[in-house]
Design goal:
There is one protein chain. Helix 16 links the parallel strand 8 and strand 9. Helix content is about 55%, strand content about 10%. It has about 375 residues and is an alpha/beta fold. Strands 5-4-6-3-7-8-9-10 form an 8-stranded mixed β-sheet, sandwiched between helices.
């Protein structure tokens, strides 16, 4: 996961770093100008120089030429020199004063970045983010955050990588910073706890239901599953097969039955048998099928689920924005699960889905087994993105 996006972010970090690192080694004229600027700001330093001249040559008037000779900048060879050599020479020739040498070191080891320095790099980064399935609005936020952290700042060459990476990490964490949902804690507070799974066709709802059932059963919950996808061929048989593998009962009716009634029967069964959790499958829907959207509204109205989980196929990329909006606008989404993230290289769908509806991701599907449901950790995502 994140292979493509991580590559693009790394390239951007390197390009911004090169803006600093490619700065020519300080020339003598540049260093002289820096010293003159600082001396003007430090009158006491100039006074000390004059005092030294008078002490050494009491008969000589401390003219500007004599002061320059004392500083001895003109006598330094006019050739490119490395930063360390310049600093050593300055330390030798210029009188010591608290903070003075430090200012000169800073002047020649840092560079204040301007918009022109990195505007092309930031634009390339924004394009790369969009290519990585990051929604345009999210990409703009990440780039603007980075721009704010860099432009007009005196950036030390040694720290540029750290500054850029930290900015990107903080942007990602801020995007993912939505109210969390503790499924286990909530499921313990009500019996039966009813969870309805939503999603487009092919998003992996049925398999995800089985994985959640496996996880909850391992934590000591009793489960019943409702085969309320009475629309798609073989959907009921698929859920029954998972139920058989997991030892979980499945409540069903025939194809074409009212899905709201199937879930209602499952809830009734759970109450009668003291079962902890009801996991309800539903038919895949799209924004174009208004009848199925209205049916979904009826399902939620009749059964008042405790949680509505939207299952998203991460490989759909930027379509997650449309999918999340469709279901959230229709019935309100409480949380999300992203599937197939183990084979998803771009990674941007994770950021886009959370940013669009401001709802948390509970789990990531990371494999083919029932156990392959990984709890979502925003800090881990932000960290891994920049490794």
């Amino acid at each position: 996961m994140f292979g493509f996006l991580k590559k693009k972010l790394k390239e951007s970090v390197e390009k911004i770093s090169n803006v600093i690192s490619s700065k020519d080694e300080p020339q003598i004229e540049e260093v002289s100008e820096k010293i003159e600027e600082i001396v003007k700001e430090e009158p006491k330093t100039e006074e000390k120089i004059i005092e030294r001249v008078i002490e050494a040559e009491p008969e000589v008037e401390p003219t500007e030429a004599v002061i320059e000779e004392e500083i001895n900048i003109e006598n330094i060879p006019e050739e490119p020199v490395v930063e360390e050599k310049v600093v050593r020479r300055i330390e030798k020739e210029v009188p010591k004063k608290t903070g003075f040498i430090q200012k000169i070191k800073k002047a020649i080891s840092e560079k204040e970045l301007t918009e022109n320095d990195i505007k092309d790099i930031l634009w390339e980064l924004q394009i790369s983010l969009v290519e990585s399935d990051v929604a345009v609005e999210v990409a703009e936020k990440i780039v603007n955050d980075l721009r704010t952290n860099l432009i007009g700042q005196s950036v030390e060459k040694k720290k540029i990588d750290e500054i850029v990476k930290n900015s990107l990490k903080e942007s990602v964490k801020e995007i993912l910073n939505v109210d969390s949902v503790d499924l286990i804690k909530q499921a313990k507070q009500k019996k039966p706890y009813v969870i309805i799974f939503l999603g487009f066709n092919g998003s992996g709802k049925t398999t995800t239901i089985a994985r959640v059932g496996h996880m909850l059963k391992d934590k000591g919950f009793s489960i019943v599953m409702a085969a309320a996808d009475t629309w798609r061929a073989a959907s009921i048989e698929q859920l029954e097969e998972h139920g058989k593998n997991l030892g979980i009962n499945v409540i069903k009716q025939k194809y074409g039955s009212d899905p709201a009634a199937v879930i209602f029967d499952a809830v009734k069964h759970a109450k009668a048998n003291d079962i902890d959790v009801v996991l309800a499958d539903t038919a895949g829907r799209s924004h174009a099928n208004q009848n199925l959207i209205e049916e979904l509204k009826k399902i939620c109205r009749v059964n008042t689920p405790d949680m509505k989980i939207l299952v998203i196929d991460a490989l759909t990329g930027n379509d997650v924005v449309e999918q999340t909006s469709t279901f959230n606008d229709a019935v309100g989404v409480d949380a999300m699960i992203l599937t197939k993230t183990d084979v998803y290289e771009k990674g941007g769908a994770i950021l886009s889905s959370v940013h669009n509806i401001k709802k948390p991701i509970l789990f990531l599907g990371v494999g083919q087994e029932y156990k392959d449901l990984k709890p979502f950790d925003k800090n881990e995502i932000a960290k891994n993105l920049m490794e």
